[in-house]
Amino acid sequence: MAVSATVVVAGAGLAGLAAAWELSRAGANVALLDAERRPGGMVVTERPGGPGGPGGKDGFVVEGGPDGFLAAEPDIQDLARDAGIGGRLVDQLASGSSLWTGQRLEPLAEGQAAALLGIQIPSDVGAQHAAPPQFGFRSFATGMLDLVEALVARLAPVFRPAQGVTGLAPATRGWRLSLNGGSTVEAEAVILALPAWAAARLVAGAGVPAARHLDDVIYYPSTTVSLAYRGDQLAAAPAGTGFVSAAEWGESGAAVRACSYSWLKYPGRAPPGHALIRAFVGPVDGDPAAAAHAELAGILGIRGSPLWSRAFTWPRGLPRYKPGHAGHVAAVRERLTRLAPLAIAGAGFDGAGVSACVKSGREAARQILMRLDA
Ligand SMILES: Cc1cc2nc3c(=O)[nH]c(=O)nc-3n(C[C@H](O)[C@H](O)[C@H](O)COP(=O)(O)OP(=O)(O)OC[C@H]3O[C@@H](n4cnc5c(N)ncnc54)[C@H](O)[C@@H]3O)c2cc1C
After folding, report:
1. I want to staple 345 with a disulfide (CB 3.0 to 4.6 A). Which of 10, 15, 109, 372 is the partner?
2. Nearest to residue 306, comparing CAs of 253, 222, 207, 230?
3. Residue 24 alpha carbon to ligand 1 centre in Å
4. DSSP letter at 304?
């Protein structure tokens, strides 16, 4: 089967959704493909107590991937407003974080927790820290999925799930994409909003050998565990939004690298009288939820077992770039300007934060629209 679209966007994570949104708003004939059945990519929010959900979980909002973004980053918030859900943006409730020394929790200076976790804060954000409302983090009222749902509400007619792109080749007018299952799609223009390793292979195969360098991006594995408790299981409500552990990984045997007090960090993450904690867990033997609970019980003075737990494993989670990354990306983009309209977007190229991904996707769409207009 061969179908055609003016622009194919491959990848329905935030970058691909933002690109498809921008294109669709401009009136382009878009097809949005993803290898998975579910849109959103790394954005995974579960609201387990929804209609038909299992008992005991009503009113919890569980994030498996990103849970928020810096308030000073405008792109994701602008897209939310454009998509009509600006009213669902919520500010963090608590502020400050701690360092778990192995003995006690000690307050950390602002920004230190991110630095310890290796999270890059965009350089223009620091300058805005003097203005209080921009300070800190934001999210959405019922989780990061709010934005995905708002975008998909518009894009549903053009979203094609379970359509992994396996090949990309020049066609008479634009590009021909091969899909798993053997079908093909032809398009005048293509945006690859895919992880770097997937885009690298497709772009190199389409005649840009330098794109193989894009595969240098390292995606670190990660496991997050969300644990629910009754409020009275905690000795006292902890201060701040969470902690980072000072343990030396691989030697200490410690599992929890960092932890968010989700129910204190953003509104509406747990029903009244309950606590929801999210731990970032390193490699452990056995059940990561049991390992996380055992450590958190000691650190936060938790009595008894969690009401329930939910673990999300990301074999390829947050990307980190090697030196020279920006140069490789720029060189590939320069080479792409000499081919039929083809763009790359997303965390593998332009920054791992959700707002950077939105910006990357929208910019790719604008460039493609300009080229189609030329
Ligand atoms: C545990 C965790 C916590 C995080 N926390 C935060 C946070 O709090 N704040 C923040 O700003 N960022 C956070 N991040 C980072 C952020 O979530 C991601 O960088 C961002 O969501 C990536 O978006 P993307 O669209 O570039 O890629 P993805 O979300 O990875 O989307 C890529 C899409 O491409 C699809 N795909 C792959 N191969 C193919 C193919 N061949 N054909 C078609 N489709 C394909 C995938 O199925 C996927 O849907 C976190 C990440 C993780 C893993």
Report:
1. 15
2. 230
3. 21
4. S
Q: Which residue's structure tokens are 């300007």?
A: 337
Nearest ligand 1 atom to the CA of 16 is: 25
Least confident segment among 113-127, 152-166, 225-239: 113-127
Q: How far apart are CA 319 and CA 120, in angstroms?
A: 11
Which pLDDT value is given to residue 250?
56
Pairwise CA distance, residues 335 & 9, whole Å? 19
CA–CA distance, 102 with 278 (Å, rounded to integer): 19
Q: Is the CB of 200 under 6 A from ligand 1?
A: no
Beta pairing, strands 342-344 & 242-245: unpaired
Q: 43 CB less than 6 Å from ligand 1?
A: yes
Q: Which atom of ligand 1 is nearest to the CA of 10?
A: 43
Q: How many residues appear in the chain? A: 374
In short, whether 288's Cβ falls inside 6 Å of ligand 1 is no
Ligand 1 atom index nearest CA of 314: 53
